[in-house]
Amino acid sequence: MEPPKYLLLSYDTAAEFDGEDGYEETWASCEEAEGLFGDPPRPARGTYELLGCAPAGELRTALTRARAEGSAPLGPLTLEVLDKRGDCVVEWELEDARVIGDRPCARDLSLRDLTVEASESADNASDYPQCPPLSPGYRLFGADHRPWGTCHDLAHVQLESAEPLEPSVRLLGCAAGGALRAALDAGDEDLGHAKLLRLDAHGRAVQPAVEGELTAWIPSARGRGLIDLTFEPWSERPPTAAPEVWDLWWDGRPAEPNLWARCGSEGREFWLRTALANRAYGEPDRPPGTTYHLDGRHITDERGFFCAIGEAVNGPGGYFGRALGALDDCLRGRWGAEAPFTLLWHDAEVARACLGVTPHTGTCHRPVTFEELLAFFAERHVDVHLA
Question: Are 266 and 274 in contact (CB under 8 A)?
Answer without folding.
Answer: no
